[in-house]
Design goal:
Strand content: 15-25%
CATH superfamily of the largest domain: Periplasmic binding protein-like II
Number of domains: 2
Shape: globular
Mean pLDDT: 92
Helix content: 25-40%
Order of helices and strands: HEHEHEHEHEEHHHEHEEHHHHH
Low-confidence stretches: 3-20
CATH class of the largest domain: Alpha Beta
Structural class: alpha/beta
Number of helices: 14
Distance between the termini: 47 Å
Oligomer: single chain
Radius of gyration: 20 Å
């Protein structure tokens, strides 16, 4: 049975923040300094002390696996559905059992088995040089068109963002179509895959490539603060939210789940429910330029100016399920 709409714990905690309600141990691979305000606000409003361990997602998954039933983790937070799915497939998460989460988060942004939920989304967009690309790609499939040969910059095939994108193409179109797409994209690269999303955008500014694939917030944050090699060239870059006439734009997530052996389950649930409050969603949206998952909360102004789009409604849990197949396909076509 799911928890009532507002759990007693969260209701009491929000009403009486001066009384300590114990602690919650958060294992997080989010590395954003702005998340500090999330934890501080939760502690102040509930009295629950947040103990944080931050590291690479794979390191945290290995740690939770080795700790087993003696583990200290209450909440696991990571970026990309592929990573939270990996933790779920490893048996490291338990049901959320929260009507609050069910009501606030769209089904395609939650795991089918109720083991994790998105707390924010990020769109995988196509960026292009407005001066040299008259007809930019309008779909992910267009990126494999030979007319864009030698024009595209991407990250490596082992990057989880690219694995998730290919995983979504597998889910929509099947393995054969995904393999043809991966090979076509590889043939259109301007350089060997390298660097992070910001480096792909810098490649447009420097003229090394004319088209790049990146999460939207790497571009938006350059409006907010100086990003070397990017901010000075923002005006020359256009953005496309792909597949608006077909499947919708691929979105990925930051996600949270309750650890299977969590010693503080109620506090863990209260913490994740808190991440979906308007206050927390605004902190996430304005702190890292991600899209909120709760209706009624607006994106940051820097994100809003990029325009609106229709997102792909494919359940993001399929990305992890197709991750191994996606990597095999990339390897088979020689995509580094």
């Amino acid at each position: 049975m799911r928890r009532p709409y507002l759990s007693a714990l969260l209701l009491v905690a929000l009403a009486t923040p001066a009384f300590a309600q114990g602690e919650v141990n958060v294992y997080s691979s989010r590395h954003y300094d702005t998340d500090d305000s999330l934890y501080k606000t939760f502690e102040e409003s509930t009295g629950i002390k947040v103990n944080r361990i931050e590291d690479d997602a794979n390191v945290l998954i290995e740690r939770m696996t080795s700790e087993g039933e003696l583990g200290a983790a209450d909440v696991f937070i990571t970026v990309d559905a592929g990573r939270i799915g990996r933790a779920d497939l490893a048996g490291l998460l338990q049901p959320l059992n929260s009507d609050i989460i069910d009501e606030k988060v769209a089904p395609e942004l939650r795991s089918p088995d109720d083991h994790w939920t998105a707390i924010s989304t990020r769109a995988r967009a196509i960026f292009y040089d407005k001066a040299s690309v008259e007809n930019p790609p309008q779909t992910y499939q267009d990126l494999a068109d030979p007319k864009y040969e030698g024009m595209i910059c991407t990250r490596s095939s082992s990057n989880v963002y690219n694995l998730s994108l290919l995983g979504s193409i597998i889910a929509h179109d099947g393995e054969d179509a995904a393999r043809a797409w991966a090979e076509g994209l590889k043939n259109n690269l301007a350089r060997d895959p390298q660097g992070g999303d910001t480096d792909q955008l810098r490649g447009i500014v420097s003229g090394e490539c004319q088209i790049a694939i990146a999460n939207h917030y790497y571009f938006a944050r350059a409006f907010r603060s100086e990003v070397s090699g990017l901010t000075e060239g923002l005006d020359k870059i256009g953005v496309v939210f792909p597949n608006q006439e077909t499947t919708g734009t691929h979105v990925n997530i930051s996600a949270a789940g309750i650890a299977k052996y969590a010693p503080n389950v109620d506090n863990a649930r209260a913490f994740i429910e808190y991440l979906l409050t308007p206050t927390a969603q605004e902190l996430i949206a304005n702190g890292n330029d991600e899209f909120p998952v709760v209706e009624g909360v607006e994106p940051a102004p820097e994100v809003t100016q990029l325009g609106s789009f229709r997102r792909d409604e494919l359940n993001v849990g399929s990305f992890a399920m197709n991750g191994d197949v996606a990597q095999r396909i990339f390897n088979e076509v020689g995509y580094r």
